[in-house]
Amino acid sequence: MAAFGSQSYPFTEQAILALSATLHGVYGLWRQSTWVYVGKGTIRERLLGHLNGDNPCIRRAGPTNFAYTQAGHAEPEEKRLILLLTPTCNRKERDRAG
User: Fold this and answer.
1) Is it the case that residue 98 has pLDDT exceeding 60?
2) What is the pLDDT of residue 93?
3) Which CATH architecture fits 9-97?
4) What is the pLDDT of residue 3?
5) N or C: which end of the chain has fewer CB within 10 A?
6) Surface-to-core class of residue 84, CB atoms within 10 Å of its CB (0-12 exposed, 13-18 middle, 19+ buried)
7) pTM of this structure
8) d(CA 36, CA 87)
9) Residue 95 has pLDDT above 80, yes or no
């Protein structure tokens, strides 16, 4: 979680809805000590999609927490974090970057 700073949140609808609807950047999902997914975009919208099952891999992994960082140009930071954290549901992105 240190990759995103010290703040983390439960991966729940209540915690996600507390975020600004316009917050843009990079986010990460994890369960226990395993990183599940790193993504970018409008954070609240993307997290609600994942919570509602838009990605089968994320749904199966059952993340319990998320963290995020605001970023105007999120793509380089997303790629860096995918390579650093090796999340289980970002295999295609890691293969393209490597």
Assistant:
1) no
2) 57
3) 3-Layer(aba) Sandwich (3.40)
4) 85
5) C
6) exposed
7) 0.91
8) 5
9) no
